[in-house]
Specification:
16 helices; alpha/beta; 5-stranded parallel sheet; about 450 residues
Length: about 450
């Protein structure tokens, strides 16, 4: 067995975690990539709606390429804080560095007192809802089930909210068309519900569908639907125009309603179920959405979906602030209270965008390489050490004496612990073989696409 002077642990093997692993392995530094799931695809598999089949397959193959590197030790089905203790790993195992690329899987609370008592009783959160949608076609699926209700309310305003609206409309229209003897499937409806109905000379009213409604606390032009720069008035105006265009295109293709400048302020409960929300109008003052006094109204609905953002699941031992992991060093996102533990990707940003996760994972892992791990033979790229003195690129042990290289005997002990976890999961060590054996059944295969 080859013994290396460093071994990095990465928890989470999706976009950011795989990119971080790639950054380390390119420089000859081995990594152990732990993932809580059988496959390391995170929200690409479980949060990106399954109509994005080509994008999903492309991004998953990019992860496969990075994690099948011979210097990567993949460990599936290990949940940090449950199967292994964070504090034990961070303080006792002795990795050169520990990276948290655990993502943002917890829904941000809706913020109405007592409303979470009605989860599953009229209230649904986005993350489990999309997970259900992505996997419900699989033979033997035993996860939580949802029954789509017409005239649903969606609270939110980002791209994830638009995905929720699409799911609601696609499911409702597909069910109604099939009940009337029309052929329909998700992939055709994904292209455009409006066009599909037009071709069949039908309307939502003909199908008895009211459609769902999005309530957003700010203006449409404020929706976070475009990553465009907003640093100048000209850039802001362009970004606002793009946001309005994106929203209008979605609404016209998928036939949902949008109510900007509205926010939920209370719940409506009857017979132990959430049957709607009290919605209050808002106005923008100094860039903030301010409630309009006396504008409250009851909006009843058989189904309320909250889609107002995702945050990391808190893990014992990891300090948090405002629902995110608390960092002491913004440049490398070092976790407060730990010398060599870092957070990357959605665990820090709270965003689900694939490109943002990948970019953040790459940037932070490169900074960590430049600042926290020595490089006696000068193999770090110029990009990884940009802005640093040449001496810091050659040896960071001089800058950070508390980050120690791993003793050969300790390296072997660590690998033995990793091997034991792999054996417990039934992982043979061949990443490609493992993926092929455990890849879920694809809807396009069942439909013959």
């Amino acid at each position: 067995m080859s013994v290396h002077p460093h071994l990095v642990a990465i928890f989470g093997g999706a976009v950011s975690g795989a990119e971080a692993a790639s950054q380390f392995t390119q420089r000859g530094i081995p990594c152990v990539v732990f993932d809580q799931n059988t496959l390391p695809y995170g929200k690409i598999e479980d949060g990106l709606p399954k109509w994005h089949d080509k994008l999903r397959d492309k991004e998953e193959e990019r992860i496969n390429e990075k994690l099948s590197h011979p210097l990567v030790h993949f460990v599936p089905n290990v949940r940090l804080g449950q199967d292994v203790s964070f504090e034990d790993v961070a303080r006792n195992w002795g990795f050169s560095a520990v990276l948290l690329a655990t993502g943002a899987w917890k829904d941000r609370p809706l913020g109405i007192e007592g409303v979470d008592e009605y989860v599953g009783k009229g209230l649904i959160y986005q993350n489990p809802f999309i997970y259900w949608f992505n996997h419900k076609h699989e033979p033997g699926f035993t996860g939580e089930q949802y029954e789509i209700k017409d005239d649903a309310i969606v609270i939110g305003g980002g791209l994830a909210s638009l995905d929720v609206l699409k799911v609601l409309m696609i499911e409702s229209v597909e069910r109604a068309l099939k009940a009337r003897g029309h052929e329909a499937d998700m992939f055709s409806l994904d292209r455009s519900i409006a066009k599909t109905l037009e071709e069949k000379k039908l309307t939502l009213a003909d199908l008895g569908i009211k459609g769902c409604t999005l309530y957003y606390r700010r203006r449409i032009k404020d929706m976070p639907l475009s990553p465009s720069a907003t640093d100048t008035p000209e850039q802001l105006a362009k970004a606002e125009s793009v946001r309005e265009k994106v929203l209008n295109n979605y609404a016209s293709k998928y036939l949902f309603q949008v109510k900007p400048l509205h926010m939920p302020v209370d719940k409506i409960v009857e017979n132990g179920r959430l049957v709607g929300l009290v919605i209050q109008e808002t106005q923008i003052e100094n860039g903030k959405a301010v409630p309009v006094s006396g504008s409250e109204k009851e909006v009843r609905s058989p189904m309320v979906v909250s889609s107002i953002g995702s945050i990391p699941e808190l893990i014992p031992g990891i300090p948090e602030k405002w629902g995110m992991y608390q960092v002491a060093d913004e440049q490398v996102c070092r976790i407060k209270g730990y010398e060599n533990v870092f957070a990357i990707g959605n665990a820090v940003t709270g965003r689900g965008n694939i490109n943002e996760s990948l970019k953040h994972g790459k940037e932070v892992s490169e900074r960590i390489l430049a600042e926290y791990i020595d490089d006696p033979v000068g193999t770090l790229t110029q990009e990884a050490i940009a802005g640093r003195e040449t001496a810091a690129a050659k040896t960071v042990d001089g800058l950070m004496p508390h980050v120690k290289r791993i003793d050969p005997s300790h390296y072997e002990a660590l690998i033995s612990q990793v091997d034991a976890l792999q054996k417990r999961a039934g992982y043979s060590g061949d990443f490609r073989e493992w993926v092929a054996k455990h890849l879920p059944v694809r809807l396009e295969t069942l439909l013959g696409h």
